[in-house]
Write a structure and sequence with these properties.
The chain has 18 helices and 28 strands. By secondary structure, it is an alpha+beta fold. The strands form seven sheets. The protein has a seven-stranded mixed sheet with strand order 10-11-8-18-15-16-17. The protein has a five-stranded mixed sheet with strand order 13-21-20-19-14.
Length: 727
């Protein structure tokens, strides 16, 4: 904590209750008294404001509260600040303010949660204002030095110019004086037409350190005197640890201590992680797996199937009278789809390093939500906020998994049993795979009605399956309903359905098995896109119409949806002959505030081997901060989306997840990757996400192309369970 900041003592319970919203906003109402001196960064340099520190050598340090996990948010946010700051981009670097500092300073950096493709789109306004305010303060400081009006001065490339006289100075020379000024209250942002840096495909700021190995991830972190811990939790969620015989491993090399971790787990602490894991594997453990040990994939599937036709359901979107419209339809089309559990499969397994003492606790980890990790430390220790801190390290991927804090809590609970000794907890790959927070399992029954002219007059979608919010954020349920379940199917908002159907009913029969779901990259739109877009193809086929034209007729009131769909259709050559043996499929969706579409070209051998030759993908995110990074995100989306389609299912046996490593939970290889052509078409006026939306259209575009090639509908994934794979 900076010595010039008075850190108030904060009641632990009050903070944990607020932070439990995982990014819902904390209204702490703290008054932080500052002395006459400016707030200084760790190296003693005064900060111009919370977002900007400028060193005497002209280095510009931009504070980034969101997490970087490969998606490029760190560079994009720095671009937003630097655009308004008018600084020299070649001198920009970044640093993470800690959540403890954020709490002590009335949450000056805002929300720390990085998920739902929100890193840029929900913070763009206030981070740009942070850069603009710093620019105004620097100009005012220079103007004060020259005794001239600030209105006569301009700034560009970290240089301030007094226009009438031609005098100049640099940001580094006036930063100390600027830091003492009162921040402006009226901060105006640039018109997008005047942007110089936003919209440019600048190089990422974190690449060099990753290439040279200088980047420190949680798995790399070390402290003097640190010990290592390996852990095993009950393989069946809801079960407990009954007993273990630590005497059997007491003499094993490097073992320091065997500890119980709450009611469900046991950990071995040793000098090295390998010694800890080896001893843990040899430790006799008895589990009380409880009644959930009787659950299987088959029993879950049966329970969800019952929800397709019976029981209560929450309505997510409704207009007209679906029941009567279907009853009077000239033709009815019906199908049932299903989507499995899927694992995040982060390359870096969950880990955290904790140092617990009698009056303080610090944690070092990769996290998608520094404040949630901070809250977990407070809850695990019982300490007040001024006695805890979380230091965020680079994430070896997140995909939504590191938005949870179970591994942080475990690290603290272990460290509490060896006070004064830093303990690094690292999950084994098997622990990571069998204790994930999985993509929710669902099924969907769809019924469509066509009139005598083959117009779609009615659509009924009934989803049966899990609610993520029910398990992870029950306070976000709305009268028991999980709004996130209907992503991509809503009447309005940032995940709207792209079709106007006279009679529509979308509902959710909530059924929650014991396997804990989570926010898996793309989340609910991944299966909703398959349900909607593959069924649209089924309806088009039943109507005897071209899939593109069938969709377009329903999109008169959805011009942005239609624009991205038209873009991919045109570029892939829809309506013209494909190469011999190659077939095409389409899909579109709106999610995370962005409009996306995809067109795929595939060939199929023997009905079981698919070669995805080419994918054209379009996105309208409103504003495109870094087009080069968006292109990479689009390409990466197809790695993730197609891996899920072909390989991604997790199954349950005796209450536990069966897939324990990459030999049973595969990911696509580079030779299986299609050529991806991106169309970035920002229409302006809104801020959408880019990290997740395109994932949703990967699978349905390929599945629709597979039908075009074979005449066979695939309504259940992963394809490996249909004995279908990559050619």
């Amino acid at each position: 904590m900076n010595k010039h900041v008075v850190a108030p003592r904060l009641d632990r319970r009050a903070f944990v209750i607020g932070a439990a919203t995982l990014g819902g906003g904390l209204a702490l109402g703290l008054d932080i008294p500052f002395g006459p001196e400016p707030v200084r960064a760790a190296d003693g340099t005064p900060e111009v404001n919370a977002w900007v520190v400028i060193r005497p050598d002209e280095t510009v340090v931009v504070r980034i509260a969101r997490s970087e996990m490969g998606q490029g948010t760190l560079t994009g946010l720095a671009q937003l600040v630097a655009e308004e700051l008018e600084c020299d981009w070649s001198k920009v670097t970044t640093e993470y303010p800690t959540p403890g500092q954020n709490v002590a300073r009335k949450r000056v950096w805002g929300e720390y949660s990085t998920g739902g493709s929100r890193g840029i789109r929900t913070s763009q306004d206030y981070v740009r204002k942070g850069g603009a305010a710093a620019r105004m303060m620097l100009i005012q400081a220079a103007a004060n030095t020259w005794s001239v009006p600030a209105s006569e001065c301009t700034a560009a490339n970290s240089v301030i110019t007094h226009t009438p006289s031609g005098r100049t100075t640099t940001y580094g020379k006036v930063a100390e004086a600027a830091a003492k000024l009162t921040p402006p209250t009226d901060v105006k942002l640039k018109d997008p037409k005047d942007w110089k840096l936003i919209g440019k495909g600048v190089k990422r700021l974190d690449t060099a350190d990753k290439v040279t190995g200088a980047m420190i991830y949680g798995i790399d972190f070390k402290l003097p005197g640190m010990l290592n811990a390996a852990i095993k939790d009950c393989p069946v969620t809801g079960g407990k640890l009954k007993s273990f015989d630590d005497a059997k491993i007491a003499g094993m090399k490097g073992v320091k201590k065997v500890v119980r971790v709450e009611d469900t787990a046991v950990a071995v602490i040793a000098d090295t992680w390998w010694h800890a894991k080896t001893a843990l594997d040899a430790l006799p453990i008895v589990w009380d797996e409880g009644p959930n040990a009787k659950v299987s994939s088959a029993s879950i599937a049966q329970w969800l199937a019952e929800g397709l036709d019976s029981g209560p359901a929450y309505v997510g979107n409704q207009n007209g009278d679906v029941k009567n419209a279907l009853a009077g339809a000239a033709k009815k089309v019906e199908a049932v789809y299903n989507y499995p559990y899927q694992n995040h499969a982060n390359m870096e397994p969950m880990n955290a390093t904790a140092l617990y003492t009698a009056d303080k606790c610090e944690v070092w980890c990769g996290t998608q939500n520094g404040e949630a990790a901070f809250a977990a430390v407070l809850e695990a220790t019982g300490y007040s906020a001024d006695k805890c801190e979380v230091h965020k390290l680079m994430l070896g991927t997140g995909f939504g998994r590191r938005g949870q804090t179970d591994y942080v809590r475990q690290a603290v609970m272990i460290a509490k049993q060896m006070p004064g000794t830093p303990i690094k907890l690292l999950w084994s790959r098997e622990e990571d795979m069998t204790h994930g927070r999985y993509h929710p399992i669902t099924q969907c029954k769809l019924t469509g009605g066509l009139d005598a002219d083959n117009n779609l007059t009615a659509l009924h979608m009934r989803i049966s399956g899990q609610s993520i919010l029910f398990s992870l954020r029950p306070e976000a349920l709305v009268n028991g309903k999980d709004p996130a379940t209907f992503a991509g199917l809503n009447a309005n908002g940032d995940a709207m359905i792209g079709y106007s159907v006279p009679n529509l009913l979308v509902e959710h029969s909530m059924r929650n098995p014991h396997i804990i779901p989570g926010f898996w990259r793309g989340v609910n739109v991944n299966h909703n896109a398959i349900y909607l877009e593959c069924f649209m193809d089924e309806l088009a086929h039943a109507a005897g119409q071209d899939p593109l034209e069938f969709r377009r007729k329903l999109m008169d009131k959805h011009p942005k949806h239609r624009a991205v769909l038209d873009a991919v259709a045109e570029k892939i050559g829809w309506g013209t002959d494909a190469p011999k043996g190659v077939y095409r499929g389409l899909a579109q969706l709106h999610s995370y505030g962005s409009y996306v579409a995809a067109a795929a070209e595939v060939s199929v051998t023997d009905g079981t081997k698919i070669k995805v030759h080419r994918v054209v993908a379009s996105t309208d995110p409103g504003y495109a901060v870094n087009p080069a990074q968006i292109e990479r995100q689009i390409a990466g989306s197809f790695v993730y989306g197609l891996s899920g389609l072909f390989y991604g299912g997790c199954t349950v046996k005796d209450g536990a997840i069966e897939q324990t490593n990459f030999d049973t939970y595969n990911s696509m290889r580079i030779n299986e990757m299609p050529k991806v052509e991106s169309i970035i078409m920002p229409s302006g006026g809104f801020w959408g996400g880019v990290g997740e939306p395109t994932i949703s259209v990967a699978a349905p575009a390929v599945l629709n192309a597979y039908f075009a090639a074979t005449g066979k509908r695939i309504r259940s994934v992963p394809l490996r369970d249909q004995n279908i794979g990559f050619a």
